[in-house]
Specification:
4 helices, lipoprotein, Prolipoprotein diacylglyceryl transferase
């Protein structure tokens, strides 16, 4: 089975064109995040990259949600908003389910 067919099956897609649009959305989102990262990080850290710990915290807590917003935005532009909205909800369910399993009960 081809990788495209596996993705279509896994994501429950109707056509190869829908798969192509979804892959284009992922590509546009990644490129946009790459181009936005440097100016945003320079603004937040005043161009001082010597404090890498602060830069990583800023990156995680700002760029991760920004990436998700970009993903939904490009999904809307390319007519695949419903797919990406469900994709985001599924991703966050998995994240929060894992974090809830790792917590110890309070005694």
């Amino acid at each position: 089975m081809l990788w495209t067919e596996k993705l279509k099956t896994r994501w429950n897609l109707k056509s190869g064109w829908q798969l192509l649009l979804i892959l284009i959305v992922f590509a546009c989102t990644g490129l946009s995040a790459m181009f936005i990262k440097k100016p945003v990080m320079n603004f937040l850290t005043d161009g001082n990259a010597s404090n890498w710990k602060a830069s990583m915290i800023y990156y995680i807590f700002l760029m991760t949600p920004l990436y998700n917003v970009l993903l939904l935005g490009y999904g809307f532009i390319f007519g695949q908003f419903n797919f990406f909205w469900e994709f985001e909800k599924k991703m966050f369910r998995r994240i929060f389910r894992r974090s809830a399993k790792n917590q110890e009960p309070v005694k």
